[in-house]
Amino acid sequence: NSKRDRRQSSHFMGVVPQVIAQRATSNTIFRPWRLRLSRRRGGRLALWLLTTVCIMCHPWLVSFRHSDCTRQPAFAGASGLSVQHCPRAPLGRTQPRVTRGSWESFQEFAQDPLVSVVGWSVVFASLTILKVAVAEESDTPAAFLRNGSNTPDQAPVSTSPVICVGDSLTRGNLSADWVGNLRQMLTDEANKPVLNAGVNMQCITNVKTRIEEVIACKPSHVTVLVGTNDLKAQASEFEGWLYKVFGKIPYISTLETYERDLSEIRDRLLAAGARVALVSPPVLGEDINSAANQQAKAYAKVVERTAANGGERCTYFPLFEQTYAELPKTGGRPYDGFRFFSWLCLLCFDIHVFGRDLSDVQRERKLGATLDLVHLGPKAANNLAAMTAAFVMTTVQDDLVLACK
């Protein structure tokens, strides 16, 4: 079995460079530089307009007025921009301290232009992140089943979908979209629908509970990339609490429970007739010697062993090994929950508002494999898409032969 697995993996990896080269050639010819430039300029223009509107309209935030308040220019030499200033109430025996209430203090604070800009920026940022997080995708297994794209009987292999199961790394709305890249790679080669079964903030126990929805689509190929959030939950008690409360998981996975759940997912997919690729979780942070990456290495060994025990219809994708090789030997940033969250919020704007090139974002942050210490960068995403495309294209002919028998 080990020799067969090595031959199969070497065959897949031999096809991967060809797929990447084809993808790179396509990008070189059709890359819309003018569109990228216009998006970047449009994003900066929108940011400046937001700042200007907040400064000009800040008196509207608070409609309360004092008769003894005066208006003064907001900046030196600014004739059109003004700020309302209210004198402090005098204190004395005839003037009790409660004369100046909390509302008056808040009014003066809220009418500051800087506070207005920051406040409205936080509001718009929260709305943008919320919209991205709850947006309903049209390429999910649920949408596939609603549209009746598969009948209760066994569908022909040529129309059976390829399904990518996982968490936010697979969903791709907060990172490089490797499933979207895969869909473009398979459009002409295999003519198979590609479904995205990635759900943000999910652990392996969440994936196990919704695997029946994946099986109901009667897929021909399934990739499973899960475990990053389990690693994060182990690394931080606070993040573990978040996943328990908001992710609704009954317990924080250990290495043993992770292997047990992954084996169950593998067996259920194989029993449904799908070919399965188990993908090791990528690096967590970019410090090559950190405790988080040592644990991620242990998870990768578990995934490799689970794939090897799955038989000839199950294979292993070494995503951890590929991303680990991209890390600097010294000076890499370790995983930090606060830095990750702040970078993630900014990444939401870079992707969905400014439309920035993620390679530029990665370069600015001096990162090698990830965009924010967790989510995949463009190179890692493209490699994963190429591995999956090679996995599908090298086995689809065998599946067609079996379907005709």
Provide an overview of this structure.
It is built from 18 helices and seven strands. With 405 residues, the chain is α/β, with parallel strands linked by helices. Helix 13 (291-308) links the parallel strand 6 (275-279) and strand 7. The two termini are 26 Å apart.
How do the strands and helices of this protein lay out in sequence?
Elements: H1 2-30, H2 33-56, E1 70-73, E2 82-85, H3 102-110, H4 113-134, H5 141-146, E3 162-166, H6 168-171, H7 178-189, E4 194-198, H8 204-209, H9 211-216, E5 221-225, H10 228-235, H11 237-245, H12 255-271, E6 275-279, H13 291-308, E7 314-317, H14 319-325, H15 337-352, H16 358-364, H17 378-393, H18 396-404
Parallel strand pairs: 3-4, 3-5, 5-6, 6-7
Antiparallel strand pairs: 1-2
Helix pairs in contact: 1-17, 2-4, 4-15, 7-17, 10-11, 12-13
